[in-house]
């Protein structure tokens, strides 16, 4: 008797047969013909979730973390500072005669 090579298809087929044997061993009654209608009727009676704004989503997210207000303040300041750090270069490049704090770092070494 020649043994079949183990392939993904053979493995999945064997698992499918094992699952079918397991399900047939359980004594379960077949669902009724109105099973789909009962599910649809039950789904209609449940309240549907309304669309939420981004702000309400952020508030719900913050409630999930259970952080205190100082933690939110520090996080907000960090985000604002991060955005200002990127925006500062853009605003500085618009005016040609302005001297920024970072201009001292870009010395070409002419005085040496």
What is the alpha-carbon Rg in Å?
A: 33 Å
Look at the helices and sheets and give the structural class.
Answer: mainly alpha
Q: How many β-strand stretches? A: 0
Rounded mean pLDDT is 77
Q: What pattern of helices and strands is seen along the backbone?
A: HHHH
User: Which bin fits the share of residues in helices?
Assistant: 55-70%
Main beta-sheet annotation: none
How many helices? Answer: 4
- Overall geometry comes to elongated
- C-alpha end-to-end distance: 88 Å
Fold and architecture overview:
The relative contact order is 0.03. The radius of gyration is 33 Å and the shape is elongated. Helices cover 60% and strands 0% of the residues. It has a domain at 69-96. By secondary structure, the chain is mostly helical. The model has no long low-confidence stretch (mean pLDDT 77).
Q: How do the helices and strands line up, and which of them pair or pack?
A:
Elements: H1 8-25, H2 35-45, H3 54-65, H4 69-94
Summarize the structure.
The chain is mainly alpha-helical and 112 residues long. The protein has helices at residues 8-25, 35-45, 54-65, 69-94.
Key descriptive features of the protein:
112 residues, mainly alpha, 4 helices, 60% helix
């Amino acid at each position: 008797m020649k043994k079949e090579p183990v392939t993904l298809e053979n493995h999945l087929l064997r698992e499918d047969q094992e699952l079918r044997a397991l399900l047939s061993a359980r004594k379960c009654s077949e669902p009724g013909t109105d099973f789909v209608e009962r599910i649809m009727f039950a789904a209609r009676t449940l309240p549907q979730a309304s669309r939420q704004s981004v702000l309400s989503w952020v508030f719900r997210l913050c409630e999930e973390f259970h952080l205190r207000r100082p933690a939110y303040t520090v996080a907000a300041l960090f985000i604002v500072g991060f955005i200002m750090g990127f925006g500062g270069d853009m605003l500085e490049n618009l005016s040609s005669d302005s001297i920024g704090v970072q201009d001292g770092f870009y010395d070409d070494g002419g005085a040496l």
